[in-house]
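User: Design a sequence. Structure:
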């Protein structure tokens, strides 16, 4: 079984060596490491060239900058493996697990999708934390993607849709045309649920595979722009419209929308950090899609809906700006 590992690369020279070494250090050798240089302006392309010279397992693809989604799509099309894994170049793999994962895949008769465990790495404090995901796979009689969604969202209301948190059969991706939407942040939230919805066979590999680095400058999670908040709204509304077209259990649709609606609430909470003109544009989008306020997954989202209905989106965002600023101040003091 051949495994293709797709690593999109942009401005990650500080972390790239650790990332690639964590893959090449695997005892399982039937792999190809596809480095997709997405027009990186730093020293990352040179580092990639050196790895390509040293290892026959490494393939370097150079392209003009098009974003993470486009880089991943290029990797999917260039991959020749039976299965594909994604690795962000500022993250890395945890230990030597790939042989065990391949044995697991064979044991369960080559599922379409296998998602696995991971840890968060907070680099400023140099600490690791478990993701606290709960998976009740033993209760499942039919292990389809939809069956897994039922139990995942029941036990994990805020389930994260990381594209790198699983290994996917390449033929399954191609047959279902599961590519990443280009030009959007939070592309994982658009892509990964569709993997679950289309997969006829899914398994969960409990071993920690992936180390997700946080607190790095330049991460999407650290950005705050008008485009970023627009994409939050876009993602939640994309799924609102798509779920209306899919034949699916009503309770599961509601659970999914409550999860996706978090992105809509985030756009409200951070709205007041934008300029006045940017804020006006976002408020119009929020008003046009205010029906998403009905999908609330937490006390804070319920509170947000009430404040928006009483005071409006603008004043609600001012309240949350003060709350966020206070939390940041207290965090710095502590």
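Assistant: Done.
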């Amino acid at each position: 079984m051949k495994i293709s590992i797709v690593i999109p690369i942009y401005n990650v020279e500080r972390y790239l060596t650790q990332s690639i070494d964590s893959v090449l250090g695997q005892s399982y050798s039937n792999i190809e490491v596809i480095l997709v240089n997405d027009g990186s302006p730093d020293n990352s392309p040179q580092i990639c060239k050196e790895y390509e010279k040293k290892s026959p397992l490494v393939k370097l693809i150079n392209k003009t900058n098009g974003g993470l989604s486009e880089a991943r799509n290029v990797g999917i099309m260039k991959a020749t493996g039976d299965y594909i894994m994604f690795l962000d170049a500022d993250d890395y793999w945890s230990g030597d697990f790939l042989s065990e994962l391949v044995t697991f895949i064979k044991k369960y008769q080559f599922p379409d999708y296998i998602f696995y465990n991971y840890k968060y790495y907070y680099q400023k404090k140099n600490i690791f934390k478990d993701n606290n995901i709960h998976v009740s796979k033993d209760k499942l009689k039919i292990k389809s993607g939809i069956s897994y969604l039922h139990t995942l969202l029941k036990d994990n209301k805020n389930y994260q849709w990381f594209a790198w948190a699983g290994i996917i059969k390449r033929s399954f991706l191609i047959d279902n045309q599961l590519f990443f939407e280009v030009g959007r942040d939070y592309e994982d939230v658009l892509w990964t649920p569709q993997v679950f919805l289309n997969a006829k066979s899914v398994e969960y590999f409990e071993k920690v595979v992936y180390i997700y680095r946080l607190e790095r400058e330049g991460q999407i999670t650290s950005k705050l722009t008008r485009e970023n908040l627009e994409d939050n709204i876009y993602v939640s509304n994309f799924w609102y419209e798509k779920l209306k077209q899919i034949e699916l259990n009503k309770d599961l649709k509601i659970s999914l929308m409550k999860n996706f609606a978090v992105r809509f609430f985030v756009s409200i909470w951070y709205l007041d950090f934008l300029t006045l003109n940017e804020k006006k544009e976002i408020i119009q989008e929020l008003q046009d899609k205010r029906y998403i306020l009905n999908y609330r997954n937490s006390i804070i989202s319920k509170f947000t809906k009430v404040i928006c209905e009483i005071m409006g989106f603008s004043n609600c965002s001012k309240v949350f700006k003060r709350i966020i600023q206070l939390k940041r101040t207290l965090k710095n003091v502590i």
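The first strand starts at residue 3 and ends at 9. The beta strands are 3-9, 31-38, 58-63, 83-86, 92-93, 113-122, 127-130, 166-169, 202-214.
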